Amino acid sequence: MRLFHFSENPGIARFEPRPVRIPSQRSPGRDWLNGPLVWAIDSDHDFLYLFPRDCPRIVAWATPATSDADRRLLGEARAIAYVENAWHERLTMATLHRYEFPADGFEDLRDAGMWVARHTVTPIECAALTRLDAALAARQVTLHLVDSLKPLKPLWNTTLHVSGVRLRNALDWA
Question: Is the terminal CB of the chain with fewer CB neighbours within 10 Å at N or C?
């Protein structure tokens, strides 16, 4: 298993556990997820973070529980990523740095490929990624540019796995 962390910062020598910037509502007994942690994503789900950090996006993909009707929404794609038009240029011009972590000491959250460590992590490699739209396409993720993400709220009522990231930055989400 390979674990990664994506950043716009090219010079991180060590990742120190830190609390999330904006705490989330967590299910009972999971409040610790807002505390000091190092976050990572597995290679099967790294497409969730092939975006500039603050870019609001909705990404949907099939799971074993996805209905045939909902699976057709994906077409031939592994996943679909929706991004506001206003972010397109930043998406195509951004450079991200993909830090690879040793897997030892990480805990699987069993949620869309997310893993956490409660200790300092030293990356084993860092690779610069450009043309993030092309990187998404290489992972069979179809990018859809939209004026607003708000009309996509009904996606959460499908049997697809739907992930919303940085939606607080979307134009009219609230």
Answer: C
Rounded-to-integer distance, Cα 43 and Cα 125, Å: 14
| Closest among 160, 3, 15, 2 to 82, alpha carbons compared | 160
CA distances from 57 to 39, 49, 74, 108 (A): 19, 10, 16, 23
97 three-state secondary structure: strand
Partnered with residue 79 across adjacent β-strands are: 61, 141
Domain encompassing residue 13:
3-169
The larger pLDDT score, comparing residue 52 to residue 112, is at: 52
Phi first, then psi, for residue 65 (nearest 5°) are -85, 0
Q: Has residue 174 been placed in a domain?
A: no
Query: The pTM is what?
Result: 0.89
Has residue 90 been placed in a domain?
A: yes
